[in-house]
Amino acid sequence: xxxxxxxxxxxxxxxxxxxxxxxxxxxxxxxxxxxxxxxxxxxxxxxxxxxxxxxxxxxxxxxxxxxxxxxxxxxxxxxxxxxxxxxxxxxxxxxxxxxxxxxxxxxxxxxxxxxxxxxxxxxxxxxxxxxxxxxxxxxxxxxxxxxxxxxxxxxxxxxxxxxxxxxxxxxxxxxxxxxxxxxxxxxxxxxxxxxxxxxxxxxxxxxxxxxxxxxxxxxxxxxxxxxxxxxxxxxxxxxxxxxxxxxxxxxxxxxxxxxxxxxxxxxxxxxxxxxxxxxxxxxxxxxxxxxxxxxxxxxxxxxxxxxxxxxxxxxxxx
Amino acid sequence: xxxxxxxxxxxxxxxxxxxxxxxxxxxxxxxxxxxxxxxxxxxxxxxxxxxxxxxxxxxxxxxxxxxxxxxxxxxxxxxxxxxxxxxxxxxxxxxxxxxxxxxxxxxxxxxxxxxxxxxxxxxxxxxxxxxxxxxxxxxxxxxxxxxxxxxxxxxxxxxxxxxxxxxxxxxxxxxxxxxxxxxxxxxxxxxxxxxxxxxxxxxxxxxxxxxxxxxxxxxxxxxxxxxxxxxxxxxxxxxxxxxxxxxxxxxxxxxxxxxxxxxxxxxxxxxxxxxxxxxxxxxxxxxxxxxxxxxxxxxxxxxxxxxxxxxxxxxxxxxxxxxxxxxxxxxxxxxxxxxxxxxxxxxxxxxxxxxxxxxxxxxxxxxxxxxxxxxxxxxxxxxxxxxxxxxxxxxxxxxxxxxxxxxx
Lengths: 318, 408
Prior knowledge:
Chain A is an alpha/beta fold and 318 residues long.
């Protein structure tokens, strides 16, 4: 799809009005398509009195509370191909493909794992690396010697480390720390995504996480990735200022729970995520169960265009 | 696998045995109705009532009220007056599995069990949302005070993801299991072996309703109609509409025109009461309502859903009159029925309390006779849904959580 490809190739180069115009056209089309193909979705639209004539902006599009994806029969509810995530990660990695350490087992990609969303995600991201190491063995224990050998092999090159937020802490950082091992400083980056719940339960803050990563993993940058699995995963990447950014192919809105009206920047609200990445079910406009604040549009000090925001703790539901 | 101890100390452990070990389980319980137990519960009640948000949260108010020292002492007095010369004693270790949907009702069963002198292990929902996190915080603070150390030693609040081994570990060692939640949860625990003589007290899902005689409601004067709305507010909104006796269905009984008019007036008056009482919804509650309503639309149980605001009582007229919404927090299903007798085919064993307005008691007696126990174990006037002093379900839990020692 040509329009999508251009949105994917440069995720942070579209000024907000241009982006919104293009997204609106695409999302309206998806809404129309699903109202034709998915009877339960059509019934919701009709029941809430949704009117095609009154859609002037993204906020006028219908939304689905995310839990309905599990509760209703809306189609094949599987995450889409990770093209969005790949585009965002590629933008973070820059032009040079780095050696990559994946905080998972190689078996995640093989056999039954190959077809799972996690397997697809790892394969897509691994393709962005020049060399790979799967840091864990099949029982998810850290392969310390192999890790150190890999780092040594690529001495002098910045490394990219990628994994699930909790797994990186529990299966990579903690074991290294316990063994008194620190990776030599290579100036690369850590990308992590996934629910913070386990870390919140253990009272680990975002700052502590980043500090630990810099000390133990030798990275200079740590980027948290936020996003809904059903919309393609962590496509909202944390920038150097600690703000999450909406890429060109997705958007974030915040709503006031009292009337579900749209909130302006700097007011806490319930996060709604929109995505044009094609799905096999009407998942293009979802009301999450996270609270967040939109900070601004197009003017983040990091230089990236688009909406930028924060997600509020506890980041595991309300 | 993580077990998180929430109180008395916030910490996580890899194994449940680290939080609830054999040493904990072998402790001598305190005596029933001990001074330490009453002091602790009264202190907890005070802390709850002192919270600034309690005014706008009837469920918290109710919790705090139930834990007032005078209430506790009255409960003890009532108990003693019923058992003559026998000496009450605790049963031992009580495992509480708190229902996920009703984050705070576990406080009641925990309080009664503690009052009875039992050791308690309480598993609460993994979703630590308000008011649960507030309550847990208060429990933890109190339990860390030196004067409550005997209580802290004998009580644990934990949470863990659903895991059969953990449940079995505790079920095997608990003298009493208090299981609240879905029928599935109750069945799961029922199947687990326990010590010989172990007791099970279960609280499966139950629903309650309200019946309003439409013509009588329309004939009521302003003061009576307002009083009715206030009583309904107490019945429905305390415990966040999540206790077994909170009405979820509202039946207007009478001819169609009267029902329509009575319905419109009823909900409008209730909205005024919500405002006057300072009742507040929450983001989580509103999301739950939205998801619920959309689901009813998607599954063809209702044709349209007008958008309500968080300040309004929400009502759906479901196409299936027997449907009972499981939502809470101010979401109702309303029906128009020609007579009380029309309730009979809509009533079953999981129906708990029926509150009514505008009917003489005799009519409810007739209904009860026809039902013959297959639904509604309580048919009481509007305002009396939540029984005073008896806590959950109308059962005498304090009796069930103690044993009587006879010494001659």
